[in-house]
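Dear colleagues,

I hope this message finds you well. In preparation for our joint manuscript, I am sending the ATP-dependent zinc metalloprotease FtsH (Maribellus comscasis) sequence together with its predicted structure, so that both groups work from identical material. I would be grateful if you could confirm receipt.
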Amino acid sequence: MADDKNKQNKPTNPFGSFNSNKKNDGKGPKFNAYWIYGIIAIVFIIVQFYFSNSRGPVETNWSEVKSTMLANQDIERIVVVNEKHANIYIKKDRLDKYESEFSGNFSKPSESGPHFTFNIGSVETFERNLREAQEGTDYEVLPEYKEERNWAGEILWTIGPFVLIILLWWWIFRRMSRGGAGGGAGGIFNVGKSQAKIFDKDQKVSTNFKDVAGLAEAKQEVEEIVEFLKSPAKYTKLGGKIPKGALLVGPPGTGKTLLAKAVAGEANVPFFSMSGSDFVEMFVGVGASRVRDLFKQAKEKAPCIVFIDEIDAIGRARGRNPNFGSNDERENTLNQLLTEMDGFDTNSGVIILAATNRADVLDRALMRAGRFDRQIHVELPDLNERGAIFNVHLRPLKLDQSVNVEFLAKQTPGFSGADIANVCNEAALIAARKNREAVTKQDFLDAVDRIIGGLEKKNKIISQEEKKTIAYHEAGHATISWLLEHAHPLVKVTIVPRGKALGAAWYLPEERSITTKEQLLDEMCSALGGRAAEEIIFGKISSGAQNDLEKITKQAYAMVSIFGMSEKVGNVSFYDSSGQNDYTFTKPYSEKTAELIDEEVKILIDAQYVRALKVLKDNAEGHKKLADRLLEKEVIFSEDLEEIFGKRPWNKETGVAEKQRQNISGNKEIEEKSEDSESQVISA
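The corresponding C-alpha cells are as follows:
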C-alpha cells in the first residue's frame, strides 16, 4: 500500500517524454523532443534579435544632420564605419532635444551612442558636404574612420548552406530508415540491417497452441518443430537431422500467421519475425544485406526460429520478371536467401518458418529439400474444425441460450478462421445495435447474410415489373436446385436488394473433396434456371443473369480443358499446376483444339439450358406459386419449397439438411436463415 501511495504522490514530468523513440507513459502530454528543441531555438532567436536591436542607432539622413544637428552644434563626433555609413554621437547635454525621435523608435539607443546613423554614399562626397556645412562657423567636427566585421554573419553565410544540406540529408535518410533493428539512431548506417522483431525469453508472445483451433495435422507438425529445438537429442540419437525449414501454405485467413505466433509463444528459444516485404528497399543491395544480417543474428542466438511471413514477396520464381534483362533487386535478395538457407555455411540450430498463399509462384530452388524440408498445408476448416474455431471466438461474447455451435458451423461452409472471427464480431455488433442483453442465434444468421451479401437496401426504388422479373428469376434457380439430385439444396431466397445485387439465393453446398461430372452438370443447370425462367415467363431475357453466365462459362471451360470431361477433346488437361508458364505467349494447344474446346463448351451449356427449360416447363405450376409467394413475402425459406414441391427424395445429407435444421429450432424465420458460400446473385 505504501508503494502505491508513493507512486500516486510521485511528481509527473509536465513535459512528457523527451525521447522521441520512447512511448509516452500516460502521465503527461505527448511532447516530441524535436518540438522542445524548436521552441528553445525560436525563443533564443527572439531574445537575440531584441537585445541586438535594443541599443541600435536611429536611422536618419544627411539633410536632417546638416539642418538640425550641425546647425545647432549638437554633434560630439562622427564615426564612419567601413566607409559605408556614418554613426552620429550627440552631446549628452543635448540628448533631451531628440527624446521624441528616440521614443518613436523601437530600438532606442543608449546614452553613450551612437545615436543616429545614415548611409554616406562615397567618402569623398561625404567629406566635401561636411566641410561645406561647417564653413563660416567656429564649430568643426572631423570624421573618424573605423573598420568593423560581423564575424557571426560571415560565418553563417559561409558554412550555413553546407550545414543546411547536411541536415537535409540526415533528415531524408532518417525518414527512409525503418524502426526496429534497422532504424533508430544513425538510420543511414543501419539501412542494411535486419528489420526482424525478436521475441526472446524476456519478451514472450501470449498466443499458444491452445488458441489455435482445428488444423490438427498442421499443428502437430509445427509442435514437432518446437520439440526438435527443446530436445534435439531425442530425434538425433538415431542419426536423424533436425529439419531446416517448414513452409505454411494455404488460402488467406486459414491461420498460418496464427500458427507462427503459437510457435513463438510455445518455444523457449529466440523467435525472429518479419515480412517478406521488409527485405525490399529502394537502395540496391539492401535486401541481400538484410538477409545476411538476419542470419548473422540468428546464428548468434541459435538455437532459434526465423519466421518470414508472405515470403512470395521475395521468393517468386526467377526468370519470370517481365522486365527482361534487368538487374532485379528482388532476385538478388532471393539468391542471398537461398545461399543462407542451405549454402556453403551451415546454419546449425536455425529453423526457418515461412507462410504464403501463393506457393505456385515460388522458386523451385526455394522449395527443395534442405531448405524447406516440410510443406505444411493449412486448408479451409471442415465442419468439426469450424465448430472448434467458433468455440474460441465465442469465449468473449455474452451468448443467448438459442446459440448452438454445431448449427453455426453448418451455416458457414467454405468460411476460413478469419471469416468466422468476423461473423462473431459482426453478430455482437448487430446485437448491440438492437439493444439486446445477449447475442442471439438470429444475430449470427444476420451476420452471415451481412458478410456474404452486404446490407439490405429496403429503400432502393425498384419498379414492379423489375421486381416481378427478379422474383421469377430467383424462383427459377430455387425450383431447379430443389428438383435436381446433385444441385445444392436451397436455404433462403430474397428479392430485397443487398449490396450491388437486386436479389440473392443462399444454398447449403455439400462438403466434398472431389466432384463428378453429373454434379457439375446439375449445378450448371441450376445456375441457368434464372435465365430460363425469364425466357419462359416473359419471352425475353435481361442482364440479370450476368453473374450466372460468368460462373457457368468458367465451369464449362474447366470441365473441357482442365478436368478432361469431354469425349471429343479427350482425357487431357491444359492446366499448368506448377505455375511456370505464366509469361508464355502461346497457348499449350493448337488453334484447331481451341475451336474444338469452344464447340464443346457451347454444347455443354446449351444442353443444360435446354434441360433447365424442360424442368421449369414440367413444373410450371410450382414455379409460379414459388414466385408469387416470393413477391408477397420478399423472403422465403426451404420449407416453402418443401410445401410446394414436397420433400427431396434423395436420402443424402444435403437432401435432409433442411429437416436437420428444423429439428434444432422451431422458429421458422430464425432456423431457416442459413448461408451459402456459392450464393446465386442477380446483378443490376
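For the figure legend, we might mention the following. The radius of gyration is 41 Å. Residues 13-52 form one domain.

With kind regards,
E.M.
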